[in-house]
Amino acid sequence: MMTRARLAGTGSYLPETVVTNQDMSGIVDTSDEWIVSRTGISERRLSSGESTWHMGAQAGREALAASGLRPEDIDLVIATTVTPDYYTPSLACIIQAELGIRKAPCVDLGAACTGFVYAMDAAARYLATGGARNVLVVSSETLSKIVDYRDRTTCVLFGDGAGAVVLSAIPEDSDEPGARILSSCLGAEGESGGFIVSRALSIDHPFILDADAGATGRNRDRFGCEGERFLRMEGQEVYKFAVRVLQESLQKAVEKAGLTVEDLDWVVPHQANIRILETAARRLGLPMERMVVEIAGMGNASSASIPVCLDRMVRDGRLVRGQTLGLVGFGGGLTYGALLLQY
Ligand code: ACO
């Protein structure tokens, strides 16, 4: 895949409420020292009522404004979240309505923490085939809705927030230098899905044939959950998976593009744990100065973490036109993906 496309605008939104490690140690048996040394997280932002759609719309509005486009120029909206406010309407449809984008098709894409990378890959393919000219991608997460604040092994890790980008097609014969999607490498390992689970509603209606359906398997929970929505994670298994796929998917995407890791100005990874990023960087031979790390102040905001990083990099001037970036996501599913682009 080599698609002429410009990252035309970025936006982000983090809730105002700051929850420090000190605050966390007031509700579970933990400490600032443990959390910082094991994860690199010092504080996270948690929603004080801002819904997933509200945060997503704020980020999307900012990205649209930065792109200089009008709402009617957007001809596809892709949203990603593991924490939607509604089964229907989709997050993408609500954002379309909030931003005054008329008629464009809207779809939510479910790839957990890899959602943004999957969405960028899908957007690039729409642009490449002429199916769309300007795609709004919004990733918004309110992990605090599914985190169990009695479970110290997960509650210290997650935060809420949203990020968005507008990706625009550039005609193949354009004189504009750079600005292209260079390659991607996506994948999933469904057999390991049980390592990160948050259960949706189970079957419960007046016409269930067998009251004991749970035991017979019809209403059986595949992952041994106990009817709760709370996110459950096998931290060490996910850690090993993350280090492996971060390295492998980035390397494959780099090879597909005919580049080497040294050609990357920036790697923008899913912000899950500083130790995962440090280990992967070491194995890739990538200096940490080129690995973007924003985890200290935001925690793990699932699919929102990469677009929030991109927005910060654009706004503080770190990201310069012509630079080459590797976006890498990994998480629930289990899913993973890397996408290379020239800004
Ligand atoms: N405070 C203090 N102690 C704790 C805490 C805490 N918050 N959490 C766990 N511990 C304890 C454990 O109980 C255990 O104690 P024990 O030895 O007495 O049993 C000890 O610390 C070590 O626990 P481990 O699980 O071995 O700790 P580890 O070093 O593996 O770190 C962590 C845990 C941070 C979760 C790590 O495994 C990790 O980052 N995994 C990857 C998670 C991830 O990347 N998720 C991203 C994808 S999922 C998504 O984004 C939605």
Layout of secondary structure:
Blueprint: E1 3-13, E2 18-20, H1 21-25, H2 32-39, E3 43-45, H3 52-67, E4 76-80, H4 91-99, E5 106-109, H5 115-129, E6 134-142, H6 152-155, E7 160-169, E8 180-188, E9 196-197, H7 213-216, E10 232-233, H8 235-256, E11 266-269, H9 274-284, H10 305-315, E12 324-331, E13 335-342
Parallel strand pairs: 4-5, 4-6, 11-12
Antiparallel strand pairs: 1-7, 1-8, 2-3, 6-7, 8-13, 9-10, 12-13
Helix pairs in contact: 3-4, 8-9
The structure holds acetyl coenzyme *A.
What does this structure look like?
The protein has 343 residues and is α+β, with helices and mostly antiparallel strands. The protein folds into two domains: 5-169, Peroxisomal Thiolase, Chain A, domain 1; 180-195 and 229-342, Thiolase/Chalcone synthase (Peroxisomal Thiolase, Chain A, domain 1, 3-Layer(aba) Sandwich). Helix content is 31%, strand content 23%. The protein contains ten helices and 13 strands. The protein has a nine-stranded mixed beta sheet, sandwiched between helices. Helix 3 (52-67) packs across helix 4 (91-99) and helix 8 packs parallel to helix 9. The protein is globular, with a radius of gyration of 20 Å. The model has no long low-confidence stretch (mean pLDDT 94). The structure holds acetyl coenzyme *A. The site of acetyl coenzyme *A (ACO) has 23 residues, from helix 2, helix 6 and helix 8.
